[in-house]
Every structure is written in structure tokens, then in C-alpha cells.
Design goal:
The chain has six helices and no strands. The relative contact order is 0.20. The protein has one domain. It is mainly alpha-helical.
Length: about 90
């Protein structure tokens, strides 16, 4: 994935898998910012955040070098997780 969406970063040996903790931290920031009482994040929202980041920030979107914390926080915010929490009565 990194090679296709972030080719320059891939050439510099950056891999998305090595930044999973940054995405996890972005979700934790969202949970804290919106006072979500439970830290249960279904994998589907984690995956939706990754897809959002690839589409919006990768080669076929904004074309940034590599996702930073702000990009991952935007992806977490747009993953649908917050809407799902609202639906179950946050």
C-alpha cells in the first residue's frame, strides 16, 4: 500500500504498518476530545480510517509525502466511528 499511495516515502523506507500506533493515538485523541466513555473501537473503523487516509492524502488525493498525526486524526474523525457512538447513545 505504501508504495502505491506514498511512493516517495516508500523509497525512503517508510511503511504504513510501522505507524499503526500513530493511528491508534489519533483514535484515542478523538475519544478524549469527544468524551467517548468506552475505548472499544471496532476494526472496521480502524480500516475505514486507513482507506480514508489513502484516498484523501495519498498519490490520488492531496499527494502528501506521508501521513502525519493531523492526517491520521482527520481520518479517525471521518471513519464513521463517532457517528456509530452517537447512534448507540453516547
Amino acid at each position: 500500500m505504501t508504495r502505491l499511495f506514498f511512493p516517495e516515502a516508500y523509497a525512503d523506507k517508510k511503511r504504513l504498518a510501522n505507524y499503526a500506533n500513530v493511528l491508534w493515538g489519533a483514535f484515542l485523541d478523538v475519544i478524549e476530545d469527544y468524551n467517548v466513555p468506552d475505548i472499544d473501537i471496532p476494526m472496521k473503523y480502524f480500516m475505514k480510517a486507513i482507506i480514508y487516509c489513502l484516498k484523501n492524502y495519498g498519490k490520488f488525493g492531496e499527494g502528501i509525502y506521508f501521513p502525519d498525526k493531523n492526517a491520521w486524526e482527520d481520518a479517525a474523525n471521518n471513519s464513521g466511528y463517532l457517528k456509530s457512538v452517537e447512534c448507540i447513545g453516547m
